[in-house]
Specification:
1251 residues, alpha+beta, nine-stranded mixed β-sheet, five-stranded antiparallel β-sheet, 44 helices, globular
């Protein structure tokens, strides 16, 4: 073949116009530990840090590279193409330059191309090498990952090893040969389809498939299999028994895939499981993952509920003082009886309740009940099946027609074909729709459409696909992929540069064909059929970026037409090149048997490229033809017609070298290497990206397509700068004029050093709430200066700014100014009609509402599919609000538009992935109160009543627990909105509240009587077992007059009604609900601080129990030592804030006695009581109950952040950045994005797919 130069010049380096730079690469785990680090690497200057990191971490050969090389002479091969090996005295090291990688790949392709006779002259071979090296360096295209891993190790460095059981077909003799070495013939293929026979242990059978899959997973490739040949459950076996069924074997294979790990790193293997819609076990297969996800949900919820109730039962046992085992008898321990009833109501098994009581009786000080999380890598998910594959159902046109007609559908036995069961087709279809809605699986593959476009039906039907669904061909075949970066073919004026694109398509088709010749394969069958059919997988990436930068909406007629035209050019030129190679080397061996069919398929492609709406041959579903009228660039449409005219003409004359030429792959890792904003045919997922910095960290940057698009749309540079600043933010609070300002922070205790610390952190912030934390400011400053609670700060939902008194609106305004909106919605200057250009797969940023519709995804696929040999891997994004019916309609629309496959992903359909937009994500205080305020008074009353009934009506009633005749409590006087309110409580002996009295100095006997009756109703509810929490949830934030400023209560400063005030006070005093207090109770001047401290007051716990029998729990707000008042307690608390390490108990005792002596008779009485309790305790050899309480409370007071809290915070951060919220299985970073039907990591390039 003749190879012309377009990007390079003869006798010049292929990198002559490419500048290189030296950099370092470092990838860290979220905890800061280093995953990978390498310095002194050489990469093209234009490459981003992410691209450099992926190249260095994944694709550089780390060992076995000789420091000195020598050429090995070979007859018939030009000297510059001779392979190399280690010279004498060479040391072994690793690759350090991108040029080494480009050289070994381009050189190997050229070497095997020369040996296979693909070049007319040596000059053609040299031009091929230079052009390929240049395209790799300039990110115009890239092959799939196995090429980067394996290609050229033997040719460039002499690396070799023993055979791994692979096979290849000798290109000269045509004979199948077992490989003698590991690397002489590389393994460049990523995608495989394998068959399975209905046989248990023989070659080609079920257990043999697990071995074959393992061989592929080990090296990072992916595989798909149609399991429909396996007998259904209870079908007869030849030995007289009955089959255990399809699902039992699928679960075994799923376990094996999960254990092996893909490429030795990620937990999930790249695997596709396909079952025909007439299989006897199809219903179980459809519901498989739905049921498994339900198991995870049950495990997570049940374990947490059990832990909560069992620990409450345990605490009720050990917090009791009684004799003769009374503490462990629910009939004699009221607290235990209450917790046992609550545990039974929550369906906790009696066996476990009795077990916990028994442990407490035996002297245990704590119990450990393991809980589970919805993390995809957690034990909950690992304990269920179905998590290591994509699932798809194969449906025929006959089935879909039966769905439309609501006809019967027959499930048939695998042996004999007799009908096992008859069901309604629509019923089965609804099960598929529900499963896709509930757990994003199974997908649908349209069997009839796939085989209508099958080029080689003489070899059998296409029955399966690779894991990502883009490669669809015969069983036991393989495909190697490469993708072209469309943004590199965009002219300065915005036009698509057709000539370089056609040139690149031609050369990369040759590369993929040579890769088939040089490759080795993991089995005899795959090696033989790959030789006979020679399928290729050329595709493209960045169509979303290309359309956006051109100012064209993804969801537009013009956008779809441009995507279709580019696809038509790519596949047409690729088939034309295949026909060129066939003219010189010969067509693929099975072409003659399939000539008529393949030419018919090519004619149908050509008709679609010409925009014909009719005249197609043997198609059950007509394709969407190219919309020439919507293409403004005339030469683009003309090139699409010309490409298919030439492909058909040359194919008819010479045949084709390849049975298939193109697919649209997810381009996961290689998309990062090419710095693609979008992958495959996907739209963008976010407008603001978080770019990695060398050495860790990141910075925010607008999608590079956005400024280009704004320029194309006619905005000035000043306007563009304003729009970008709106999206990315100003990264400082200095220019904020109200709300969260520097002055406001100083007023709350921030000094200049702390403000400067905040400012430094804001430069890379994506939400200011994640900057205001104890790690940035220091825990001591937060506790001592800001007065924040140390334990509260560890909660994953802790909001320091809200706690400091800033309103939600003030925080959001500051967020918008500092961190940017991460969307263009609401940006200055932007025109409403231009917003569609910037629509992404999901709403962008914290205020974005716009997102591409489900139909827009499907119609884009339909515009591209008629020009692709294989299929397309793409995610159909659906919002959380999508219905089951909409899932079914999406599948049906896909069929009617001629797609070959469809995979849906509804936001929230996976437990392990948090919602992008949750229906439950509302702020009670702001949103509900505002909604109620907007309603008339009668409606507000109804809402309040509904909340009470909704929360309480299903409570199981119990016998009334009467209060003691003489009981303790407290009285709180306050003025609410100018009206005096007296709140009096009554308590049980154990400190629980049992009644309230409300008295008001307000004109009008009716209102006072109404409040009195309300207090009686609440009191009766409390005595019948209604938890105070329910009343608090029901009545806080209610709004009616009187309302407003609260005077006389140092914890509550404002109330929206009398009820709001009362239940805030009760929540703070009895429930420890400090979130409902405006001033943290730790600083409450009414009752002071007390002597709380993490683990200091072991003996003071004994005092606390004694005091609680006579002192009001509500008055001291849960801390019995708060009876000491005012400044004395403040001094005491201040003294305890210092971390002294000397004799702590003696120090505390001395302080307590010192202050007690200084105070009133109350303090003196407290001192006497304390001495009496300690003296009684000292007469005992031990105090097991006190020791148990001290141990448990010490554990509960530990302020270390749990693993779940850390995970929740990282998930929240990831979602704010636009990522999925899952952790990468390779590097642990939460930077996974959807990529076709797979996931990829934007940090390390890891992918759950096979490309």
């Amino acid at each position: 073949m003749r190879i012309r130069r377009l990007f390079t010049n003869e006798n010049s380096s292929p990198y002559e116009a490419v500048a290189f730079r030296e950099c370092a690469s470092e990838i860290r785990n979220p905890d800061g530990s280093i995953v990978f680090q390498q310095t002194g690497i050489e990469v093209p200057e234009a490459w981003s840090q992410v691209a450099s990191d992926v190249l260095a971490q994944k694709y550089f050969r780390k060992a076995g590279v000789p420091s000195k090389l020598k050429k090995v002479a070979e007859d018939g091969v030009p000297e510059w193409l001779w392979r190399s090996e280690a010279d004498e005295g060479a040391t072994l090291t690793g690759e350090v330059s991108a040029k080494q990688v480009f050289h070994r790949m381009a050189g190997t392709w050229t070497y095997w191309g020369w040996k296979g006779g693909y070049f007319d002259t040596e000059a053609d071979a040299r031009a091929f090498y230079d052009e390929m090296s240049h395209m790799l360096a300039t990110q115009r295209a890239a092959p799939n990952s196995p090429q980067w891993f394996n290609t050229g190790l033997n040719w460039a460095y002499g690396i070799d090893g023993p055979s791994q059981g692979h096979f290849y077909v000798d290109h000269i003799t045509g004979r199948l040969v077992k490989s003698a070495s590991a690397y002489e013939h590389p393994q460049p293929h990523a995608c495989f389809i394998q068959s399975v026979n209905d046989d248990l242990v023989n070659e080609g059978g079920i257990m043999d498939l697990w071995t074959r899959e393992a061989r592929l997973f080990k090296y990072g490739s992916g595989t798909g299999t149609n399991f429909s040949s396996l007998r259904g459950e209870n079908e007869r076996l030849s030995g007289g028994g009955r089959s255990s069924g399809l699902m039992s074997f699928l679960k075994i294979g799923d376990r094996a895939a999960g254990a092996i790990k893909s490429g030795g790193t990620t937990r999930r293997a790249a695997k596709m499981v396909i079952v025909d819609v007439d299989h006897p076990d199809i219903e179980d297969f459809i519901s498989w993952k739905v049921i498994e996800e339900q198991k995870v949900a049950a495990m997570v919820a049940g374990s947490r509920l059990a832990e909560k109730h069992l620990k409450a039962v345990f605490k009720a046992c050990i917090n009791c003082e009684g004799s003769n085992g009374d503490c462990f008898d629910p009939r004699k321990n009221p607290a235990l009886r209450r917790e046992v009833k609550a545990a039974r109501k929550a369906m906790i098994p009696d066996n476990y309740i009795e077990r916990v009581i028994s442990l407490a009786r035996q002297g245990q000080t704590d119990i450990d009940f393991r809980t589970y999380s919805t993390d995809w890598d957690s034990e909950a998910y690992m304990s269920v099946s179905g998590q290591n594959s994509n699932n798809s159902v194969r449906v025929t046109d006959a089935f879909l027609q039966a769905v439309l007609e609501d006809a019967d559908w027959e499930l048939t036995a695998r042996k004999g074909g007799n009908v096992v069961k008859t069901i309604k087709a629509r019923e089965l279809w609804e099960k598929v729709s529900y499963a896709a809605w509930a757990c994003a699986d199974p997908g649908i593959q349209f069997h009839t459409t796939i085989n209508d476009w099958h080029t080689c039906p003489a070899g059998g039907d296409i029955r399966a696909s690779n894991p990502c669904s883009e490669y669809m061909f015969l069983d036991d075949t393989a495909c190697n992929l490469a993708s072209l970066n469309l943004m590199q073919f965009r002219c300065a004026d915005g036009a698509f540069d057709v000539e370089p694109f056609e040139h690149a398509v031609r050369l990369w088709t040759v590369v993929l064909e040579i890769s088939v010749l040089m490759a080795q394969f993991p089995s005899r069958e795959i090696a033989q059929l790959s030789y006979e059919y020679r399928t290729l997988g050329l595709g493209f990436a960045n169509i979303g970026g290309l359309l956006m930068s051109s100012g064209i909406p993804y969801d537009s007629r013009e956008g779809r037409a441009i995507a279709g035209a580019i696809s038509a050019i790519m596949t047409g030129i690729s088939y034309r090149t295949s026909a060129e190679m066939a003219a010189e080397i010969g067509p693929f061996p099975q072409f003659a048997a399939n000539r008529d069919t393949m030419l018919r398929v090519v004619r149908n492609h050509r008709r679609a490229a010409h925009g014909d709406g009719a005249g197609y041959e043997h198609l059950s579903t007509l394709p969407v033809p190219l919309d020439h009228d919507a293409i403004a660039q005339i030469d683009l449409a003309a090139a699409a017609r010309r490409a298919w005219n030439e492909a058909l003409e040359l194919g008819e004359a010479h045949g084709f070298r390849n049975a298939q030429a193109t697919v649209i792959a997810p381009t996961g890792t290689i998309g990062l290497v090419m710095d693609c904003d979008t992958t495959g045919v996907e739209p963008d997922f976010a407008l603001v990206k978080f770019k990695t910095l060398a050495g860790g960290g990141y910075f925010k940057i607008i999608n590079r397509c956005v400024p280009e698009a704004l320029t194309t749309l006619g905005y000035s540079q000043t306007q563009i700068d304003d729009i970008v600043a709106y999206a990315v933010g100003h990264a400082t609070l200095e220019t904020v004029t109200s709300g969260v300002t520097h002055d406001a922070l100083r007023a709350r205790g921030f000094d200049d050093d702390r403000i400067n610390t905040i400012e430094a952190a804001l430069e890379s912030a994506f939400d200011i709430r994640f900057v205001f934390n104890k790690w940035t400011l220091g825990e001591r400053f937060c506790v001592e200066t800001l007065g924040l609670d140390a334990a509260a700060m560890d909660a994953p939902d802790f909001d320091m700014l809200r706690t400091l008194g800033f309103t939600r609106n003030e925080i959001e305004a500051a967020n918008l100014h500092v961190c940017g909106a991460m969307t263009l919605e609401g940006a200055p200057h932007i025109k409403e009609e231009h917003l569609a250009v910037f629509d992404c797969a999901n709403p962008c940023g914290r205020i974005g509402k716009r997102a591409l519709s489900v139909e827009s995804h499907i119609r884009m696929l339909a515009a591209v599919q008629p020009f692709i040999s294989g299929a397309i891997s793409k995610t159909i994004n659906m919002p959380n609000s999508a219905s089951v019916t909409e899932c079914g309609e999406s599948y049906m629309l896909s069929w009617k538009l001629g797609l070959k496959a469809n995979a849906l992903y509804r936001d929230g359909s996976k437990l392990s992935q948090p919602l992008a937009a949750s229906v439950l994500a509302f702020d009670d205080e702001d949103d509900e109160a505002e909604d109620m305020l907007a309603q008339p008074q009668a409606a507000r009353t109804a809402v309040v009543a509904e909340r009470v009934v909704e929360k309480i009506v299903e409570r199981v009633s119990r016998e009334r627990e009467k209060l003691p005749q003489r009981r303790k409590g407290y009285t709180q006087k306050a003025i609410v909105g100018g009206h005096k309110v007296y709140l009096r409580t009554g308590e049980y002996e154990d400190g629980r509240i049992g009644e309230i009295f409300i008295d008001m100095h307000k004109d009008g006997a009716a209102f006072r009587s109404l409040m009195d009756a309300f207090a009686i109703a609440i009191s009766m509810g409390l005595q019948y077992g209604v938890p105070l929490e329910e009343f608090v949830d029901a009545f806080t934030f209610t709004r009616f007059e009187p309302a407003g400023l609260v005077i006389g209560n140092d914890s509550i400063k404002n109330a929206t009604s009398i009820l709001d005030y009362i239940f805030r006070e009760l929540a703070v005093s009895y429930l420890g609900r400090h979130d409902l207090a405006h001033v943290p109770p730790a600083r409450d001047e009414d009752v002071g601080d007390g002597v709380e401290g993490g683990g200091r007051a072991t003996r003071q716990d004994e005092i606390a129990r004694a005091i609680s029998r006579v002192a009001s729990t509500g008055y001291v707000r849960g801390n019995p030592f708060k009876v000491v008042r005012g400044g004395v307690v403040a001094n005491l608390a201040l003294a305890h804030d210092h971390d002294h390490d000397h004799d702590q108990d003696r120090h505390d005792d001395a302080e307590f006695e010192h202050y007690a002596e200084e105070e009133s008779p109350v303090s003196a009485a407290m001192g006497e009581l304390r001495d009496a309790v300690l003296e009684a305790a000292s007469t005992l050899s031990e105090n097991p109950v006190g020791a148990a309480v001290a141990t448990i409370e010490a554990r509960m007071s530990v302020s270390s952040t749990s693993r779940n809290d850390i995970h929740a915070r990282r998930v929240a951060e990831a979602r704010m950045k636009g990522f999925e919220g899952d952790a990468c299985g390779q590097c642990g970073n939460f930077t996974l994005v959807r990529n076709g039907t797979c996931m990829k990591c934007n940090t390390c390039g890891g992918t759950s797919g096979c490309s």
